Amino acid sequence: MPELSRPPHPADTIPEDKICRSPIAGSIVSVAVAPGRRVRQDDPVVTIEAMKMQTAIGAPVSGIVESVSVKPGDAVKPGQVLCKLA
Fold first, then answer.
1. Domains of the chain from N-terminus onward
2. pLDDT band, very low/low/confident/very high, at 80 (cuts 50, 70, 90)
3. What is the pLDDT of residues 26-76, one digit of tens each?
4. Which of 2, 32, 56, 81 has the most CB atoms within 10 Å of its CB?
């Protein structure tokens, strides 16, 4: 079986990488971060409920939370900003 090749990952991040966006439409169940908190890539940021299933959304990159744009109970749509990292 041939080996899959992947394009090289860029060494630097672009500003868009530091924006955590909702991948799905749903309702915010919980927010696990606050401004000033240090997070690592894939650390849980928020939990979204959609179709009676809860999904934890992880940080896209490591950094410090600059702002949080949602709170529990908020309805979100795909692509909506959840938080920004510095």
1. 22-85 (2.40.50.100)
2. very high
3. 999 999 999 999 999 999 999 999 999 999 999 999 999 999 999 999 999
4. 32
Sequence-distant (≥ 6) Cβ neighbours of residue 64 within 8 angstroms: 36, 37, 38, 39, 85, 86
Half-sphere exposure of 21 (CA within 13 A, CB side): 9
Q: Among 54, 83, 62, which residue's Cα sits nearest to residue 71?
A: 83
Q: Using H for helix, E for strand and C for coil, what is the string for 10-69?
A: CCCCCHHHHEEECCCCEEEEEECCCCCCEECCCCEEEEEEECCEEEEEECCCCEEEEEEC
- Residue written as token pair 């439409």: 25
Reference 19, options 71, 67, 72; nearest CA is: 67
